[in-house]
C-alpha cells in the first residue's frame, strides 16, 4: 500500500478547511496530513488546533517566526516535515474525490516513475466567484492536459515544444510525487513567487523527474471557486498579468542557465522570458529592443506570447 503525506497550506480558509481535511482522511493510503498555517487573520489557526487534536494523522505546523510566508514557503515546510514515501498537495479550499489515488496504485508499480498527475474539476461556491471564473476560463470544467504523456514528453509539452498541444498546466491537487526525488534533485517551491509558484515547480519537476499522466479525462479533486480566489483576480494579458508572468519566466530562465539545460530548452524558456520582459518596456526603447531581439532570433515572433510586444 502507498504511504502518502498530504500537505495543506492554510491561510484564511476556516470555512473550507474541515471538508478539505476530511476528503484526505478518507484514504487508507494517507498516513499523515500536514496543516501548514500561514498567519491567518480569520479563525483558521484555532480550527487547525482543534482538528489536529482530534486525529493523530493530522499534524499542525507554523513557520518558525509564526509569520506569513505564502503558499510556496508553506509547501516547502510541509515537504521538510513529511515522513511518508509519497507527497501529495491539497489547497485548503479544495477537496479530493474518492478516485484521487486510484491511478497511483498502478502507475507506481513501475519503479522508474517518480510522480503522476491528473485532472481536477470545479465547484462554484459563490455567484461572484462563478462569474469571475467563467469570464476568465469560459466553461472549462477540467484543469488537465490534452493527452497522456510521460517522461521528457511532459516537460516538452509544458513548454509548448510538442507537435500536438499538450497543455501548459496541471494542478498540484492532482500531483503525487516521491519525496526521495524531491530531495535528490533539491526541488522546492520558489518562495519569491507569491503566484505561479506551482507552474514554476511543475516545470522544474517535469524536467528533473520521470512523470507519467494518470486520470486526465476525469477529475480526481475539486477546486472550490469563491469570491477570494486569486487566480480569477488578474485579467489575462493585463499589465499585472504580464508582470507576474515575467517573474515566473525569469525564475525558470535563471534555473535553466544554472542547471545548464540543453540549448533547445534554454532557448524556449528565454523566448518566453524575453517576451514578457519586452511587454513591460515603454516607448521607443521598447520597439528598438523588439527589433534587436527579432534580429538575434526571429523565433521570438512565433512564441505564443508574441502579442505582448504590442500592448
Would you kindly provide a written description of the structure presented here, covering whatever features stand out?
By secondary structure, the protein is of the alpha/beta class. The protein has two domains: about 5-230, Spore Coat Polysaccharide Biosynthesis Protein SpsA, Chain A (Alpha-Beta Complex), CATH 3.90.550.10; about 240-310, no CATH class. Helices cover about 40% and strands about 15% of the residues. It contains eleven helices and ten strands. The protein has helices at about 15-25, 45-55, 70-80, 100-105, 125-135, 150-160, 180-185, 195-210, 240-260, 265-280, 285-295, and strands at about 5-10, 30-35, 60, 85-90, 95, 115, 120-125, 175-180, 210-215, 220-225. The strands form two sheets. The chain has a seven-stranded mixed β-sheet with strand order 3-2-1-4-8-6-9, sandwiched between helices. A three-stranded mixed β-sheet has the order 5-10-7. Helix 6 packs antiparallel against helix 8, helix 8 packs parallel to helix 9 (about 240-260) and helix 9 runs antiparallel to helix 10. It is globular and about 65 Å long. About 40% of the residues are buried. Mean pLDDT is about 90; it is low at about 305-310. GO terms for molecular function: hexosyltransferase activity.
Lay out the secondary structure.
Elements: E1 4-10, H1 17-25, E2 30-37, H2 44-54, E3 58-62, H3 70-81, E4 86-89, E5 95-96, H4 102-107, E6 115-117, E7 119-124, H5 127-137, H6 152-158, E8 175-178, H7 179-184, H8 197-208, E9 211-213, E10 219-225, H9 239-258, H10 263-279, H11 283-296
Parallel strand pairs: 1-2, 1-4, 2-3, 6-9, 7-10
Antiparallel strand pairs: 4-8, 5-10, 6-8
Pfam family, one: Glycos_transf_2
Protein name: Glycosyltransferase involved in cell wall bisynthesis
Domain Glycosyltransferase 2-like: 5-131
Amino acid at each position: 500500500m502507498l504511504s502518502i503525506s498530504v500537505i495543506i497550506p492554510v491561510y484564511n480558509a476556516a470555512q473550507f478547511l474541515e471538508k478539505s481535511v476530511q476528503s484526505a482522511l478518507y484514504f487508507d493510503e494517507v498516513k499523515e496530513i500536514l496543516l501548514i498555517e500561514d498567519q491567518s487573520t480569520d479563525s483558521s489557526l484555532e480550527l487547525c488546533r482543534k482538528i489536529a487534536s482530534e486525529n493523530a494523522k493530522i499534524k499542525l505546523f507554523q513557520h518558525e517566526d509564526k509569520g506569513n510566508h505564502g503558499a510556496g514557503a508553506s509547501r516547502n515546510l510541509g515537504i521538510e516535515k513529511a515522513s511518508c514515501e509519497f507527497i501529495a498537495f491539497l489547497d485548503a479550499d479544495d477537496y479530493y474525490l474518492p478516485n484521487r489515488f486510484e491511478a497511483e496504485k498502478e502507475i507506481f508499480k513501475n519503479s522508474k516513475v517518480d510522480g503522476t498527475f491528473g485532472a481536477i474539476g470545479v465547484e462554484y461556491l459563490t455567484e461572484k466567484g462563478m462569474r469571475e471564473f467563467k469570464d476568465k476560463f469560459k466553461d472549462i470544467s477540467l484543469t488537465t492536459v490534452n493527452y497522456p504523456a510521460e517522461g521528457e514528453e511532459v516537460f516538452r509539452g509544458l513548454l509548448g515544444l510538442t507537435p500536438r498541444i499538450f497543455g501548459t498546466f496541471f494542478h498540484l491537487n492532482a500531483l503525487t510525487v516521491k519525496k526521495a526525488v524531491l530531495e535528490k534533485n533539491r526541488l522546492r517551491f520558489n518562495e519569491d513567487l507569491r503566484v505561479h509558484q506551482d507552474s514554476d515547480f511543475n516545470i522544474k519537476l517535469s524536467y528533473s523527474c520521470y512523470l507519467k499522466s494518470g486520470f486526465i479525462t476525469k477529475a480526481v479533486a475539486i477546486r472550490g471557486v469563491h469570491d477570494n480566489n486569486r487566480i480569477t483576480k488578474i485579467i489575462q494579458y493585463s499589465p499585472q498579468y504580464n508582470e507576474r508572468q515575467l517573474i515566473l519566466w525569469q525564475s525558470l530562465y535563471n534555473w535553466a542557465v544554472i542547471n545548464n539545460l540543453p540549448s533547445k530548452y534554454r532557448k524556449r524558456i528565454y523566448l518566453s522570458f524575453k517576451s514578457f520582459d519586452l511587454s513591460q518596456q515603454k516607448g521607443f526603447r521598447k520597439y528598438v529592443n523588439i527589433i534587436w531581439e527579432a534580429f538575434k532570433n526571429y523565433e521570438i515572433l512565433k512564441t505564443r506570447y508574441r502579442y505582448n510586444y504590442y500592448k
